[in-house]
Recover the amino acids of this structure.
């Protein structure tokens, strides 16, 4: 399935979602690798197999195998880090912030693609997962790498559109009658 096929599945009440999906291919300020890596990482982060599959299929011809793996790694490692660091940030007991995480995350240091691209994907996933500490950390690294605010905003916009597509599709799936067993 492609983005066009995914758009065809979006219900009429979510016309804005469909229009925003259409605009993703015209997102300015992002390289093709950045955009398509965002589609993969954010698609996985929705935990919606239909969205993830469609976006991966769309991105596959445009990403190297290393970039595809790195985008998937960004989704996976941020799933772990966002839970852990959101906890340390939100816990009233600030002692947790001083303890070592003891989590393996070597992919962040050697993602197999341009570090700024990986950081951009990690930032978008962190925005989807609501981890302010990770958002701040990745945004800082990106700004130090010369990534502009409009590029960072574009990455988060992609994340927002992908998340909305998953919600729109789930609302349709959830309203269908249960299959006969």
């Amino acid at each position: 399935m492609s983005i066009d096929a995914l758009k065809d599945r979006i219900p009429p009440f979510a016309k804005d979602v469909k229009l925003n999906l259409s605009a993703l291919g015209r997102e300015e300020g992002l390289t093709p690798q950045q955009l398509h890596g965002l589609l993969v990482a954010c698609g996985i982060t929705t935990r919606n197999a239909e969205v993830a599959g469609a976006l991966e299929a769309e991105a596959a011809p445009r990403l190297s195998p290393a970039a595809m793996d790195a985008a998937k790694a960004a989704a996976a490692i941020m799933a772990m880090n966002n839970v852990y660091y959101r906890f340390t940030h939100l816990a009233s007991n600030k002692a947790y912030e001083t303890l070592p995480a003891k989590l393996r995350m070597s992919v962040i240091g050697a993602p197999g693609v341009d570090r700024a691209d990986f950081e951009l994907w990690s930032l978008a996933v962190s925005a989807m997962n609501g981890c302010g500490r990770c958002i701040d950390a990745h945004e800082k690294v990106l700004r130090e790498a010369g990534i502009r605010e409009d590029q960072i905003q574009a990455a988060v916009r992609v994340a927002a559109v992908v998340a909305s597509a998953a919600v729109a599709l789930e609302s349709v799936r959830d309203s269908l009658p249960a299959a006969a067993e």
